Amino acid sequence: MGWFMQKHDIYIGGILDELNLRFAPSQGADLLFGGVEEMAALQKEFNIFKEGRPFKSSVAVMNVGARNTETKNRWLNLVGNLHKHASNKRGQNGDAAIVRALKKNLESKAPLPVFFTSHDMQGAKENSQVRITEKGRPIHYLEQDYLVISIPMQSVQAAEASMKAKEPGSAAKAGKGAGKRAKKG
User: Fold this and answer.
1) Which pTM value belongs to this model?
2) Distance CA 7, CA 82 (A)
């Protein structure tokens, strides 16, 4: 996903923090009202997360990453491409899995706070999946269960290397083909 953010990849942590604060554990009532309780109230009133509506649209409504227009738009492109990724939820692409998990959680009797994170998508095929963990403890210093959503990402350099390897006539493909020809002969 570094390919989407390019030089703006330094903002990814901050954008994830913004999401994590929007869905944080409740801190109380009155002036402390916020976090997941506020998101549950907003979901009830505005149906922010709706099956069939892209996660990108819901993130845009929340105005996440808006400190810089280019960064925000690159982030929206990143999350807008999650439908191209599988998820660890059977029959759901990454985008649909996130929307369904958030909707179900926010509409439950006791919504869990949500923790957004990322993981390296390189290596095994399942690393490119969006990962949804319905009950996890991602923050070691808080004894709090969370809905955990992990988005697959990779560095710009890894994305460029992957694209180069897929180019017709690339050295990587030529090497693979040569090995197959050698086995046949």
Assistant:
1) 0.85
2) 20
Q: How far apart are CA 106 and CA 91, in angstroms?
A: 22
Query: Tens digits of per-residue pLDDT, 13-25?
Result: 899 999 999 999 9
pLDDT category of residue 102 using cuts at 50, 70 and 90: very high
From 45, 35, 25, select the one nearest 142 (Cα to Cα). 25
- What's the CA gap between 16 and 59, in Å, rounded? 11
Strand 131-136 and strand 146-153: the pairing is antiparallel
Backbone angles phi, psi at 12, to 5 degrees: -55, -45
Which sequence spans correspond to the domains of the chain? 2-154
Which residues, including other chains, have CB under 8 Å from residue 98's CB and lie 6 or more apart?
55, 82, 87, 130, 132, 149
